[in-house]
Prior knowledge:
The protein has three domains: about 10-180, tt1808, chain A (Alpha-Beta Complex), CATH 3.90.1570; about 195-240, no CATH class; about 255-360. About 40% of the residues lie in helices and about 20% in strands. It is built from ten helices and 13 strands. Helix 1 packs antiparallel against helix 3, helix 7 (about 195-215) crosses helix 8 and helix 9 packs parallel to helix 10.
Amino acid sequence: MTYTSTPKHLNTEYLRRKLKETAEKLEIHENLYKQNNLAVMEQIVSPVLQCLGWNVENPNEVQPFTIRDSCFPGYLLLKNRVNVLLIKVENLSTNINQKDNLKQAARCCIKKQVNHAVITNGANWLLIELNRRRKASWKTVWTVDIRDYRRPTTTNLLKFISKREIDNIKNFINILQWEKNRILKETWRLMLKSEDGAQYIAKLLAPTFAGKVKELYPDIEFELEEIESFLRKNIMIIQGIEGKTKRQQVNIPKHEKPKIRMTLNNKIYEIEHSYEILIHVAEWLIRQGVLTRKDCPIRFGRKKYLINVEPHHMYGDSFKHPKKLSNGLYIETHYSTVEHIRNAKRLLKKYGYREDILKIKHPYINNI
Length: 368
């Protein structure tokens, strides 16, 4: 059974015909329903509930909310004298997906001791399920537009809030979720199975991925096509499309990893990470007795600090990669290799030292 199956006791054609009449009424009297909640309740929602088997004239089944209820305009549906569903009614101009609307419905679910609510503006109907583990939280189960009455999904989903099927709503939601997950997994599998699918996903990911690369390494330029090619290749590797040969990761022994050679005031350092350039320079300045707390904060940008007594920038946001220096100061190291070298030289210049006392020989970057 899938979410598109239909309870046999309800006549689909009858329901579709009534939805068509309601959709026409919404179109003809659109201005009225955009301004009047009561008109939406009585002339749109009530007839739909009647089609779904609810006796809107029987207070044992349908109870309108009063102003004293202070929840919202709408109905409380009961079955065997037990509250089973809330209907929150808005005017046609209201966006029912607004968080405040959903939160209000969830809170009223708690007050009325029900697990499900429908929010509607007459045209759009949205079913939510209360999350009992977290106060006033919810998840959206489905949304339908009764103006799309020709679609089988519209009538089939609405039938599951009918009087007869309301007892099975939890089972229906579980089946619906299972079916959604199956569809998503199958679509994902089919997309990744083909090279075209991998290319499509790579195109979608490329702008976001490129933005992250630019943030981390702003001085290194990448073409968008270059990034797309990289992503496509790696997506295909994940699915084993590039061939049956297993990927082998080549681990370079630690002693063979390329080193960065740094010379500071004729002293040579061999380092693995570019941020160590900045730290070595800062520590050297501390040993010279010039880099102290009284100089802080040291700002090398409009809003960002390079060194501070606490790992925070001008407006309180934290350093992304703080390192603590030997004198207790904090230095920000969230930069590219080129920026580390540039900031190190600026530090030297700030305290009256020549920039050329710092020399860098990098295995991958020339002319720095």
